[in-house]
Write a structure and sequence with these properties.
Elements (H helix, E strand, L loop, with lengths): L1 H27 L1 H5 L14 H24 L4 H4 L9 H14 L1 H20 L13 H29 L6 H6 L5 H31 L4 H16 L3 E4 L4 E4 L1 H24 L4 H6 L9 H6 L1 H36 L7 H19 L3 H23 L2
Antiparallel strand pairs: 1-2
Helix pairs in contact: 1-7, 1-16, 3-6, 3-9, 5-9, 6-9, 7-15, 7-16, 9-14, 9-16, 10-11, 10-14, 11-14, 14-15, 15-16
């Protein structure tokens, strides 16, 4: 009840600020009174699965490298003391790691963004506005991010509450973190990590780079994605617990990832049936131009024009269908990538759907970053209240 109370208080605070901001934008920006949503369109993109793989390698690998380097030079020791013994309780080591990550988050965010921007430009010539980091229509996109947050938060937190009841997490590092009586400067850095660093970098990689590629991917890329997700979830299937001297088996993330992967495969199959794709079209994952018939050849230019119009219309419908598939695929990757915090993926999947839909509809990352930041801010306020107000 204490957790629910503080989450309710936090949501009331962030929802109030969101409503005031939406009203202020609506009254001060005349364009919002005419149209909130932009015209339906899709951003052009040239990056491939190679860049997506590099981006995720940077996202997951670079913070670990930075953390290991700072630990090696003893950067955190004067600030929070020596690391706990490697043979000590797992919760203590996890809490210390969380503290180190939050303290180093401003530096890590700067290095991550610089590395991603440089990689995307050098490999594919893509600039930040190509994957959604643009100020175009920012008042409308900001207002949409706030509005979607107000609608989606109760649904996501309801799913999270149900998931925690059914699958109680074995470790709760956040509660343990609050019991340490952290100084104010460390709380500020922890808040920065949750409300700025995580939303910005995750939205760039997931909604910007991954989703922007997934709607243009080949069949090879589409098939590799669900297999990669199941493999990622199975990576931590078996864990040796030193505290109890026994092996722990984590079935939940693997089953969840497998169900999503099967759903993704079924969606691919239904698309091939709906568009009646041939073998060459399936391999390219793109409808090919229809060949002229003998009758059309006799009729001349008018028949060729009608055939081109039909092909263009089919390609447009195909692009929209793949953009919708990319929403599901991006949400799947977003949820499964948080498998180490099980059962969080059960709630993060609907959150990923909302974020991916917002990114697709606005073709901007302003709305998703706003939604993601407010969601994390609500969780941070609730955590701070539960752990400091006794």
């Amino acid at each position: 009840m204490r957790e629910l109370t503080w989450h309710g208080i936090a949501f009331a605070a962030t929802a109030g600020v969101s409503l005031v901001t939406i009203v202020a934008l609506y009254r001060s920006v005349p364009a919002l009174r005419r149209r909130w949503f932009p015209l339906p369109r899709l951003r052009p993109g040239t990056w491939t699965g190679r860049e997506v793989f590099i981006a995720f390698s940077v996202l997951f690998g670079l913070p670990i490298f930075i953390l290991a380097l700072l630990l090696q030079i003893g950067f955190f020791t004067p600030l929070i003391g020596l690391p706990p013994d490697a043979e000590g309780p797992a919760l203590g080591r996890l809490v210390y790691t969380y503290r180190c990550l939050s303290i180093s988050s401003p530096f890590t965010l700067t290095v991550l963004m610089g590395s991603l921007f440089a990689m995307m430009f050098l490999v594919s010539g893509s600039r930040p506005h190509h994957y959604g980091l643009s100020w175009a229509r920012w008042p409308a996109n900001l207002a949409l991010g706030l509005a979607v947050f107000l609608v989606a938060w109760p649904v996501i937190m309801g799913a999270h509450a149900l998931a925690v009841v059914v699958f109680p997490p074995p470790l709760d590092p956040y509660s343990a973190l609050g019991k340490l009586d952290l100084p104010a400067w460390e709380w500020l850095l922890f808040g920065f990590q949750m409300t700025v660093a995580a939303p910005v970098i995750e939205e760039i990689v997931f909604r910007g780079i991954l989703q922007g590629w997934l709607r243009r991917a080949t069949m090879t890329g589409h098939l590799a994605l669900p297999f990669a997700m199941v493999y990622f979830a199975a990576w931590g299937f078996v864990e040796y617990d030193k505290d109890t001297d026994q092996y722990l088996y984590h079935f939940g993330p693997v089953v969840f990832a497998t169900v999503l992967a099967i759903g993704y495969g079924c969606w691919l199959y239904l698309l091939t049936r709906h568009f009646n794709l041939g073998e060459a079209e399936i391999q390219r994952w793109r409808p090919l131009p229809s060949e002229p018939s003998l009758v059309e050849g006799d009729q001349g230019g008018e028949a060729r024009r009608q055939r081109r119009e039909r092909d263009e219309e089919r390609l447009q419908v195909w692009a929209d269908a793949n953009a919708t598939l990319a929403i599901f695929g991006t949400a799947m990757v977003f949820a499964v990538s948080h498998s180490s915090n099980w059962p969080a993926p059960l709630a993060l999947f609907p959150m990923g759907l909302a974020l991916s839909w917002l990114s697709r509809r606005t073709q901007s990352l302003v709305g998703p970053i706003t939604f993601h930041a407010l969601f994390n801010l609500t969780s941070f306020i609730a955590l701070y209240g539960m752990t400091t107000q006794r």
